[in-house]
Write a structure and sequence with these properties.
The chain is an all-alpha fold. The protein has a domain of 37 residues. The protein contains three helices and no strands. The protein is flat, with a radius of gyration of 15 Å.
Length: 64
């Protein structure tokens, strides 16, 4: 595969995860390191747990 194709596929995968509502750990980690260098970056497991907690702890908008 060419480098352009690999980059494009990564962009498509990132877009699909965003559409599906899947959290993007790499994006979070890069943002946290850039904007909050003094703060500890969560591990991937901690990040996913917090995303799930935030998503499913708020009742009201879903039917089940």
């Amino acid at each position: 595969m060419t480098e352009k194709l690999v980059v494009r596929l990564a962009e498509i995968a990132r877009s699909m995860r965003a559409i599906l509502g899947a959290p993007d750990y790499e994006r979070y980690a890069a943002h946290a390191r850039r904007v909050h260098p003094e703060a500890e970056v969560l591990s991937a497991d901690q990040f996913l747990r917090e995303c799930q907690e935030a998503r499913y702890s708020k009742p009201g908008t879903r039917c089940c």
